[in-house]
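An instance as discussed:

___
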Amino acid sequence: MVRVAGDGVTLVAHEWPAGSRASKTVVGIHGLTANHRCWAAMAEVLASDFRLVSYDLRGRGDSEKPTTGYSLAIHGRDLAALLDHLGLRSAVLAGHSLGAAIALRFAVDHPTRVRRLVLIDGGLDVRAEVLDSLAPAIARLGTEFPSLDAFLDRMRGLPMLAGRWNDALEDYFRYDVETLPSGAVRSKAAPTAIQEELRNIQRERLWTLHHRVRCPTLILRAPDGLLTATDCLMTREEGLAMAAAMPKAKLVEISGTNHYTVLMGRPPRVRAAVRAFLRER
């Protein structure tokens, strides 16, 4: 764990494997209410050839949480500062959900700093019904649970995670909360940050950026729903349209996964698709 100066805030970042001397770096950018630990399973996939650096977005995890300042443009400035701190003129960016939108915008604004893009179930304008299905993740912010065990039991029972639990999810959620003096726990993410983020992202028109991406791009789509069978974040039609708009994009559907398990469920096809994409010349 290292602390990095972002755009006026201090960010917490993590490197896998620690002390890696790999010549190529992938930077992982997490989603709306998430934290950097969501990339641990992906780090396992890349460990032999790449180092993976992920960080807590401002307002999340152990990064600083200013009262305001949550938009794609501001996240982009934080990301540029992180790359500078790492001494990277360019890198592969991998983004999940909101992180995919941040990576997409950064690739358009700073084309020389992005060698390749991996967009995991994100990078498109989100339908209203999907925002409704993300409500459980947003509702837990600011909610106190009597203990860590009680919190983990609630997470294990969420419809999108029931029957899909693994050690990567366990590690992710353990890091996701802080313990209060009473012994109760609550999410580290600042509710006000998420609220401002939601307002701003709904004003974006990400579809206007797709045709402006010049680097090779891998789009991973998770077809399973969150709360229902059909409320996947990216429909097949949306994924195909997104890939068609990008000059050098490929869409891969990861069957049997939803918005969360496509990244933290260790599906073999994700491993194969990402490694093949990153090895291309």
Observations:
- The two ends are 32 Å apart (CA to CA).
